[in-house]
Amino acid sequence: MGMYPRFLGTLLLSVTLLCIVEGRVHYYDFVLKEANFTRLCSTKSMLVVNDSFPGPTIRVQKGDTVYVNVQNQGDYGVTIHWHGVHQPRNPWSDGPEYITQCPIEPGANFTYEVIFSDEEGTLWWHAHSDWTRSSVHGAIVVMPLNETGFPFPEPNGEEIIILGSWYVDDDVNEVVAEALEDGSDTPRSDCYTINGEPGDFFACSNETTHRWQVEYGKTYLLRMVNAAMNAELYFAIAEHSLIVVGMDGSYVKPIVTDFIMICPGQTMDMLVTANQSHGRFYMAARQYDSVRPDVTDYDTSNVTAILEYKGDYTPPAQPIFPSKLPTYEDLMSAVYFSSRIKSLANSDHPIDVPVNITTRMYITAEMNTITFVNDTGDERSGLGSSLNNVSWVNPSTDVLLAYYRNKSGLYTEDFPDFPPSLFDFVAEDLPDSIAATTQGTRVKVLEYNEEVEIVFQGTNVFDASEDHPMHMHGYSFYIVGTGFGNFDNETDPKEYNLLDPPKVNTVSLPKKGWVAIRFKASNPGVWFWHCHLDRHLSWGMNTVMIVKDGGTPETSIREPPSYMPPCNYASKIKLRPFHHTVGRKSK
Questions:
Q1: In Å, what is the CA distance from 366 to each residue of 131, 436, 577?
Q2: Cβ distance 516 to 455 under 8 Å?
Q3: Signal sequence: where (predicted)?
Q4: How many C-beta neighbours within 10 Å does residue 581 have?
């Protein structure tokens, strides 16, 4: 550690000189420590960055590089992920614990090198260890180059809105760890938040409700992040239309809508014109719940903020609530909204959809129960989840280091391209025997520049089908098709959209349905694939993709930094403490 600061200074100088042509270099300090916050009439201490919730916004221009020095002054290990940043050839700074690094120990620090390339729009950063991201997250704004500008009229201003989850419990990680230890369900949030505030529908929240002041006649760029832990959310502004112009750091064809549906992990850019009479209007969000109707234990809170016009006028006693905000279980509104999203796909923002597919995968996402032995030696049956019937288990050393150093015994290169058995995945009352699953640290290996198609298939095992927001690290991908029922490899590909499919890093796999994506494996490294519902991530709905080097220095993983956090810190939440025995759920 003694040589590290001098090495970092030399490295930063070298990179600064290199990036004079390629882009600017920025520096941020993130200090992680506990701070007190009062919500819902109670005060608790939680880990945050720079004493703020949400954390600071990172602002860059397309192609820039950012160095973030993370100082962990908290009580447990933490990692940070730069969600949607492709990090070309640089998985060392991607962030997921035990995938590309081990946690930054309490009292230690680690500097991330965040390399931007073709991203443009709104992205975000968040903790990628335990459930710490519930309080450790913030926005990333990637501005276009000066010579290109926005593909729409320059807005008069911008507003960032981060949708989040609030837990009354002092230590969410402790609650989750206990739930995993005894096999029970993970906690539900007590309310949702807009920029850290529940809104004035809740007690003790009137004075702190987030307010956005606008001027009549002006158009604003609204940048939105769904940082909620386990919920897709509907959002609307009373009496105002939204024009969606971007998603996940890529531009889309403008669509005018009264509401949006945004998945955990997704970001959206929208234009909002202040064209109503002077007044106050609620911005509101509520959960879109895709599980079966008799399951009602989800967070039914309505989180609000207030859009208010500047000027000399007497405001109404109560802001207007958005009448077109869909209800909690409105499936068709979610499907209709998502179906309208298309890539901009013009000469200034072209797309490159792979058409010469060399690897095809068909991956089922399902819920399971697993019999395991907990830390006290007791055998228990608990909730689990899987991809292609493999429930992920974190290794003791991160996969990236094991791969790069050619360490054996930490993972196997046999993640299956297809489920172990084929059946009617979306049928009602599937037999309990189908729920049997296996645990392992099994990865998928791809050759450099392979063109890949993955079809994710939702299942109704345990009558527990719901949407799964699937997120891919290190890449964006094209959504070429989606539908309900079982994927038909003869007929469904005939309906693929190869002209202007949306380019995203997170996609919602629909309840009892499928989604097809394509990408080119041109970014060598170790990259995490997972459901962005953290309860499913904790239960094992994850895998890892290793993309091999391309044979030249320019197509190979960069050398690791001189210092990486050591792998001797035990995570509070174990993913998971199974001992490779399988059980079934009885009805």
A1: 21, 11, 19
A2: yes
A3: 1-23
A4: 12
DSSP labels, 141-203? EEEPPTTT--SSPPPSEEEEEEEEEE-SSS-HHHHHHHHHHHT-PPPPPSEEEETTB--TTST
Alpha-carbon torsion angle 417, 420, 422, 427, nearest 10:
-110
How far is Cα 585 from Cα 577, in angstroms, rounded to an integer? 19
* Whether the Cβ atoms of residue 74 and residue 28 lie closer than 8 Å to each other: no
Q: How many CB atoms lie within 10 A of CB 216?
A: 13
CA distance 179 to 97: 20
Amino acid at 554: E
Strands 211-214 and 303-309, by their bridges, are parallel
Task: Count CB neighbours of 312 within 10 A.
Answer: 5
Q: How many CB atoms lie within 10 A of CB 114?
A: 24
**Where is 7: in which H helix or E strand?**
helix 4-22
Along the 587 residues of the chain, how does pLDDT read in single tens digits?
333 333 344 444 344 334 434 689 999 999 999 999 999 999 999 999 999 999 999 999 999 999 999 999 999 999 999 999 999 999 999 999 999 999 999 999 999 999 999 999 999 999 999 999 999 999 999 999 999 999 999 999 999 999 999 999 989 999 999 998 888 889 999 999 999 999 999 999 999 999 999 999 999 999 999 999 999 999 999 999 999 999 999 999 999 999 999 999 999 999 999 999 999 999 999 999 988 776 777 889 999 999 999 999 998 989 999 999 999 999 999 999 999 999 999 999 999 999 999 999 999 999 988 877 767 777 777 889 999 999 999 999 999 999 999 999 999 999 999 999 999 999 998 988 888 788 999 999 999 999 999 999 999 998 888 999 999 999 999 999 999 999 999 999 999 999 999 999 999 999 999 999 999 999 999 999 999 999 999 999 999 999 999 999 999 999 999 999 999 855 555 544 433 333 323 22
46, β-bridge pairs? 35
The tokens for 160 are 């960032």
Rounded distance between C-alpha atoms, residue 470 and residue 440, angstroms? 20
Angle at Cα 132 formed by Cα 50 and Cα 299, nearest 5°? 115
Is the N-terminal amide bond of 54 cis, ω within 30° of 0?
Answer: yes
> Which H or E run contains 250?
strand 250-257
Residue 492 phi, psi (nearest 5): -65, -40
